Amino acid sequence: MENSRYPKFTFTWIGGLVLLGGLLAGTIFVSFLNVFWMFVFKENLQYKEWFLMLSNAAGFLTAIAFFDFFIVRPSTKKKLNFNFSPANFYTYLLIFPLMLGMMFIAEFITAQIPTTGPFFGKFYEFFSDLMNQLTDDKAVMIMTAVIMAPIFEEIIFRGIIQKGLINKGVKPWKAILYASIIFGVVHANPWQFVGAVLLGCVLGLVYYKTKSLLLPMLLHGFNNLCSSLLIMYTKNESFADAFKVSEWIILGIGIIIFSLFYYLFMKKYKVHYAEI
After folding, report:
1. What is the pLDDT at residue 254?
2. What is the pLDDT at residue 235?
3. In the chain, which residues have pLDDT < 70?
4. Given CB 3.0 to 4.6 Å as the disulfide criterion, which of 88, 98, 132, 245 pairs with 249?
5. What gap in Å lies between CA 254 and CA 262, rounded to an integer?
C-alpha cells in the first residue's frame, strides 16, 4: 500500500474543518457572483432553476480542493486520487439488489417518523416546500440528484471521510458507520437522515470491499434515480404508494432481498479488490 499511487491520507477533525471551510468558500463565491450579476445585469440568479445546482457544485468542488491542497498533499506528497475501476458483471448483480433491499427497509423506518404535530408538522411542511422547489425543473433535478450528488458526495463521505478514518486506524465497520452518520446529519432533516445512514452503510460496505469508488457512485445514483422517478410520477417518494401495497410488505420484501444478497456478497463472493 505504501507504494500505491493512491495517497494514504488520514481524516481528523482538522480535515472536517477544512472540508467545511471549502464548502463555505464555494458557496460564498457563488453568492458574490450572484451579487455581481445583479449589479451589472439587474437579474437575480437565485430565481433560476439551475442556481442551486451551481451553488452545490461550487461548494462540493471547493471542499474537495481544500482537502486536497491543505491536507492530502502536505501529508502524503501526492495529489488526491481515487480508484474508479469497474468491477466484473457478477459484482453488479449482487450490489444493486443489496441496495434495493436496503432502500425498502429504509422507506419503512422513515415512514414511522411523524409528519404532523406541533414540531414535526411545521418541519415537514418546510421540508416538503423545499423539495417541491428542487423538483420544479425535472432536467435540473435529474442532473443534480442522479449525477452530481452521487459523484461529489461519494468522494467526500466514502472517498475522503471513510477511507481517511480507516487509514487512521479506525476499524472498518466503525469508519463506515461514522461516515454514514455524518452523511445523514448533513441532510438536516429526520426523514432523509434515516435513509442516508442506512444506505450510506451499504455504500460504505461496497466501497470497502471493492476498493472502487465507482460502485458506490453508481448505487447512489440508482437510489436517487428511483426517488426522483417516484416523485415525478407519483408525487410521493414511496414504493408502497407506487405499488399500492402496505409498508409492511415493502419491509418484508426488503429484509428478504437485503439478507439474501448480503449473504451472497459478503459470505459467498470471495473476490476482494485492491488498490494498486
Report:
1. 98
2. 74
3. 1-3, 129-136, 270-274, 276
4. 245
5. 12
CA separation for the pair 149, 135 (Å, rounded) = 15
d(CA 193, CA 211): 25
Q: DSSP states of the chain as a string?
A: -TT-SS------HHHHHHHHHHHHHHHHHHHHHHHHHHHHH---GGGSTTHHHHHHHHHHHHHHHHHIIIIIHHHHSS------PPPPHHHHHHHHHHHHHHHHHHHHHHHTS---STTHHHHHHHHHHHHHHHTSSHHHHHIIIIIIHHHHHHIIIIIIIIHHHHHHT--HHHHHHHHHHHHHHTT-SHHHHHHHHHHHHHHHHHHHHH--THHHHHHHHHHHHHHHHHHHHHSS--HHHHHT--HHHHHHHHHHHHHHHHHIIIII--------
- Check residue 221 and give its pLDDT: 97
- Distance separating alpha carbons of residues 114 and 192, to the nearest angstrom: 13
- Grid cell for residue 11: 481524516
Q: Is the pTM of this model over 0.85?
A: yes
Residues whose CB falls within 8 Å of the CB of residue 28, separated by 6 or more in sequence, listed in order: none
Q: Which of 3, 215, 246, 211 lies closest to 104 in space, CA to CA?
A: 246
Give pLDDT, residue 138.
Answer: 80
Q: What is the pLDDT of residues 51-93, one digit of tens each?
A: 888 999 999 999 999 999 999 999 999 999 999 999 999 999 9
CB 57, CB 94: distance < 8 Å: no
